[in-house]
Amino acid sequence: MILPIYVNGSEILKQTAKPVEGPSAELNKLIDDMFETMFAADGIGLAAPQIGKQMKLFVVSLEEYDNEDFPNDTPEFVRETFINPEIIESSEETCPFKEGCLSVPGINENVNRPKEITIRYLDRDFNEHETHFTGMWARVIQHEYDHLLGRIFTDSISTLRKQLISSKLKAMTHGKYSARYRTKIK
Ligand code: NI
């Protein structure tokens, strides 16, 4: 089932997510719905707060991702579900990348982030992993992880860029934006 995506201005996007308690049929269905919602919107990552759930959960798929300038160099992964994730190590070296977000339609801005991370998480079968990610995987994971902390990518851009897009961001909270997928503000 395709779910509406909450847009900037929604309270849930500013809240800290809560740990997922354990496996359940509902959780399984929710994860399926999140993948379906993400694919329908041509996204590569989606966090639970973006569909209105205050849960430490996000999904990522780089199946369709292809960018020679910023390669997917953790190729053994195609798609993954991250439950109760914790980033336990970040490289000192950072790099910029122009990000976007399904909850912030129409805005793309450069964000500096660590190039590599190690994250501990449970997959959708509740198997625990501690995995090192690089390239695009590291990028998307950090973006989605921020959603669980109540942050969106425009919180992490330069002060100057923030000023330049502030009116656009504010208009968005009043419903002035366009997206070609189902959205809501609450
Ligand atoms: Ni996002």
Can you describe what's shown?
The structure is a single chain. The protein is an alpha+beta fold and 186 residues long. The protein has a single domain (5-184), classed as Peptide Deformylase (Alpha-Beta Complex), CATH 3.90.45.10. It is 24% helix and 26% strand. It is built from three helices and nine strands. The chain has a five-stranded antiparallel beta sheet, sandwiched between helices. A hairpin with a 5-residue loop joins β7 (117-122) and β8. The structure holds nickel (II) ion (NI).
* Largest sheet descriptor: 5 strands, antiparallel
Nearest-integer average pLDDT: 94
| Number of domain units | 1
Query: What is the count of DSSP helices, taking H or I runs of 4+ residues?
Result: 3
Write the CATH architecture name: Alpha-Beta Complex
Reported by name, the CATH topology is Peptide Deformylase
Q: What series of H and E elements makes up the topology?
A: EHEEEEEEEHHE
> What structural class is derived from the secondary structure elements?
alpha+beta
The CATH homology group name: Peptide deformylase
- Find the count of extended strands (DSSP E, 2+ residues): 9
Taking the alpha carbons of the first and last residues, their distance comes to: 20 Å
How is this structure best summarized?
The chain is an alpha+beta fold and 186 residues long. The protein is built from 3 helices and 9 strands, in the order E-H-E-E-E-E-E-E-E-H-H-E.
Summarize the SSE layout with pairings.
Blueprint: E1 5-6, H1 25-40, E2 45-47, E3 57-61, E4 79-90, E5 94-99, E6 109-114, E7 117-122, E8 128-133, H2 135-148, H3 159-173, E9 183-184
Parallel strand pairs: 1-9
Antiparallel strand pairs: 2-3, 3-4, 4-7, 5-6, 7-8
Bound molecules: nickel (II) ion.
